[in-house]
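Appendix B, Record 12. Input sequence as logged:
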Amino acid sequence: MVVDMPAVLDARRLRARQVGRLMRFHREEFVVDGVPGQLTQTGLLKLMSEIDPAYLGYQHTTVVRWEAGATRPTRERLEVFGQALSLSRAEVDGLIDLAGLELRYEFYVESDTEPALDDDRVDTVPVVQERNSHHGDEQGAENRAHVHQMLRFGLYRFALPGAAVAGSGFLLQSIGWTADLLLSAYIAVVIALMLCDYFLRRRRSNSLRDLLVISVFVLLGVTILPAPLTRMDSFGFYTVPAFAGTAMPFVLSLLVFLVMALSAGLIFDFLYKWQYSRPGGNPYKKAAWVSFPPLVFVYVCISLFTGAGFWVYLLEAFPVLGGVLMSMLVLRDDSIKVDVWMKRFLLQSSVLILISLTSLSLAATLIIYNDPSMLFLPDHTLLRSWDVDFAALGYPAGEYAERARMGMTWSALSAIVYMVVVIGGTLLLTIVRKDTGDSPDAAASAVPAETDKSRERPKDPRVDVRYRPGWLAGHRMLQPMRSSAGMIRVDKGYAI
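Logged structural output:
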């Protein structure tokens, strides 16, 4: 069998260059702040990362290769590209058709001694080998980009904050500033800076992972707010003689919380790519698999090294956080369609749930404040127990209840405010941003492609067509090739 593979490969290179030019055309025509031509290659990657976090680790040179045709286009990339630039379904289909992703090359052998009909067989080994090789190269590049992105995530989310927490703690200890109010301010400032960093770095694409990381850290961190008053931490670091009366127990606790938050983010990212890299599937099941395992991991690890009070608190906070994350993942799933009535119902139900949970949390805080006997003394964990030496702590045992009650109140109020404002507000914003079936975009997507061509996009004067006018002018169309040994047949689609 003789197969003109160079011609096939040349056709693929031609398609890649044509798709790259069209991608560049769409990028340069994209309207930013009312002005077209302002979207950079880095800006395109940011928009695409809002659809798929896998593009967070890509550099602008990757887009250069796409637009130059040096990288073979894939359906997944073109779909994400179309969603990032708000292209119509017809335009995305045009890119996919132009890339030849709808074509199936079948190689038929005609025998000289037996009827061709009886001997027709498919021999796609060369194409499969080339496709697998290309897929392996792209998969390796994606894996390297993912590892690079995870390293950056660890650097910015743990290494730098951890160094700041440890450095400031050592500074306080070296100059002898160990007053209760000063240590409380130190803990509050650390949590506030982490929150500010979250809002400054927040991306709509990856906000769920970032929301999980900052939420785990804050919900764990507020539990240490009473520590400067009681001079105890839940891990028992204060029992180390060298740490008694210093800032080190609180510094070490904050570092542990950072590690737990980072671990939750990495697990979330891994599960997200595992569940959402495959099309189809139950959206509720996928969202549950992504949302709850990171929180379960943190809960188990924390429970091994803290007392009963910590277990009870996290058993109340983490299910709420997991439910919110799961709800937002489901709402962001394209397979979930929400009409106007359902959207209004979700908003009203979410507000009602927030009010109910806030009321219950405030009631529980008041009950514990009025009955200090319900407070847990941090004198044991699942792995060990110890006797509290109040003389070394600098106050009598009778003052512990009052100190713990005041600290618990500030801790509970801080957790409630965060849950309502940040977590609840993010959920409500996700519901508001969810497209409904009555929106113009959804209505247009429900009609045939011919109707799409007459629809105009706001602030974009382009005509909704699959190919740029005159795009294929001057290019030779591939035709089925025949020879005495065999032929190539294009089964369907456009041959360019």
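The first helix runs from residue 5 to 29.
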